[in-house]
Amino acid sequence: MERSDCFAAIDFETADYGRDSACAVALVRVQSNKIVDRVSSLIRPPRREFMFTNIHGITWEMVRKAPTFGQLWPDLERWLHGVKFLAAHNASFDRSVLEACCRGAGFAVPQIPFQCTMRIAKEVFGIYPTRLERVCEALGIPLVHHQADSDAEACAKIMIRARQRAHVHA
Q: Is the pTM of this model over 0.90?
């Protein structure tokens, strides 16, 4: 990985067990290992049922007037222009949410590779267990867990630290 590579960290919160039920998204853009931009939004999911309010605090009342993923995606897709990869904690989850939301809204799934900060925490820093709150605690990264903007920023910072370590030890 080149230090000058542009990447973004992404985090979704979902309303129910359906991967298409994103109710919040946050993206943090990193250029030359510096956070240069952030974007986040609540999303009105396709169903009113909220099963995970106890985890993230988001309710139907909070999102009922929010944009749908289909309304939000064109701006987010433009925002991602030039990004080499997306970093996420438990990347397979966030990738599956992005894919399901894109398909559900009739958009092509973006062909941006994902890097998993859970894997990086274990391989680069030797942190285990790899829960986000544990990784952030070990690395001294502030976190308000299950708030998309805080989770995405934490992932960006984990990736920045891993890239700096790789550069120093290269």
A: yes
